[in-house]
Design a protein that fits this description.
By secondary structure, the protein is mostly beta strands. About 10% of the residues lie in helices and about 45% in strands. It is globular, with a radius of gyration of 16 Å.
């Protein structure tokens, strides 16, 4: 089945590329992220340290020395890790190699705000 935006040879090539990318992904377990710390690096140049607590809460700071801390929540939804801090929601897709990919949305904006890479650092 081809994606709706592609048809013919172009659609077939897109499907094959997507299948190759999808083969490098895996599923997060419901409890896997709990009690871990993550580095999140955005395409906009900002980097964050997010501590995902076992109770489903998040403490987040910029990676560079910064006293500001934001709190939020995390959960697994549709096999993705969802990190919500303020009006931002980051949807992270697990990778077999540990360098995960995500897209962040802001509640007031209908489109993706920024692409992220996320890696569990402990």
């Amino acid at each position: 089945m081809y994606f709706s935006r592609g048809s013919g040879q172009g659609g077939k090539e897109f499907d094959e590329s997507f299948a190759e990318w999808a083969s490098t992904r895996r599923v997060f377990s419901d409890t896997e992220p709990g009690g871990t710390r993550w580095a999140k690096i955005g395409a906009h140049g900002y980097a964050f340290n997010a501590e995902l607590l076992a109770d489903g809460t998040v403490r987040e700071r910029r990676l560079m020395p910064n006293r500001d801390e934001w709190r939020g929540n995390w959960h697994i939804d549709s096999r993705m890790l969802v990190i919500s801090v303020g009006d931002h929601e980051l949807f992270v897709i697990a990778s077999k190699n540990g360098l995960h990919s995500g897209v962040e949305f802001k509640s007031s904006e209908p489109s993706c705000q920024v692409y992220f890479r996320a890696i569990q650092i402990w």
